[in-house]
Amino acid sequence: MIASIGLILLCQLAGEVIARGLGLPLPSPVLGLLLLFVLLVARDYIKPLARGPLGNGGVEEASKGMLAHLSLLFVPAGVGVIQQLDMITAHGVAIMLVLAGSVLITLVVTVVTFVVVARLLSMWVPR
Amino acid sequence: MNADPFSLWVYLSQTPLLWLTVTLLVYAATDAVSQATGRNPLVNPVLHAMWIIGVFLWATGTSYTTYFGGAQFVHFLLGPATVALAVPLYENRKLVLAAILPMALALVVGCVTAIVSVVWLAQLAGLPETVVLSLAPKSVTAGVAMGISESLRGDPSLTAVAVILTGILGAIIVSPLMNRLGIRDYRARGFAVGLASHGIGTARAFQVDAIAGVFAGIAMSLNALITALLVPVLVTLLVR
């Protein structure tokens, strides 16, 4: 448990070092995600890696535990919105409508692109 | 026992313990209600925990800074939770690899749509330029979006507000919208909500379907990468 959380933090830390060190405009958790993914894949090929948190599903369990409560992690930042409401009162309604419209358009365009490309591919590549 | 209950309150209201406890208990309650309604999109646990805690802070005259002193321990876990997305990604790697082309195209098209639509709509609504710039990166996770906003000379705190609202709006809209469009492919549904509404959309996707959650997590991560590259370019083209 502790080692698994340690490994997750270590991946993020390494991501931070890489992003800062190379001056990359990439968020460190995303680099950490890539690192942990590479470790998990490498474990399948390099047997000695499969020990500790990578051994018996430790890091898997810790990760799933964290992801099961992903919503909770947005609450502190969300409360910040309530505190800043006076700042957006001037344009509050307009901002809400603009955001809602943009989210709606983005969802439709993205999902349609995905579905259309997936269908075209399955027509070209018969299973 | 303290003789004066008021001085005990003054003490407790300044400790991280109280606000961490409030955050966890209020969320546990809103999440239980959300579960009891079969994850009805309108009973979004983040949205309702937000305003309940907000009212609580207002009623007790507590500043957000004091509250965050306790809540920061939860907030901190956002980074590690993003790293943890590697696990479902690894477990579903075959499924993900098989959908690599639809994902790549949906990513580029969706990312451009997210930026262009919000800038155009904001200009149409006659919002001032600082607001337009601050809204542009609203579809990516707060940390990244605030950095982009700053480099555009927007207002990072307004961007943070826009990011949270975008997340909640997407989480509420996505299920009814996809059902109405008749889209049953949970890979596509998850990918769209992760791209449009970052982590809050991803959290919603995980509540609905494990595969949707995986694809939402991928979309969120990739969108954070390419939005950082595309926003400056598109904004200079659009905002004149």
From TrEMBL, chain A:
Q: How does it sit in the membrane?
A: Multi-pass membrane protein
Chain ranges passing through the membrane: 29-46, 67-85, 91-121
Name a single GO cellular component. Answer: plasma membrane
Q: Which residues form a coiled coil?
A: none
Where found, per UniProt?
Answer: Cell membrane
The answer to whether keyword Chaperone applies is: no
Please report the name of this protein according to its UniProt entry: LrgA family protein
This protein's species is Rhodopseudomonas palustris (strain DX-1)
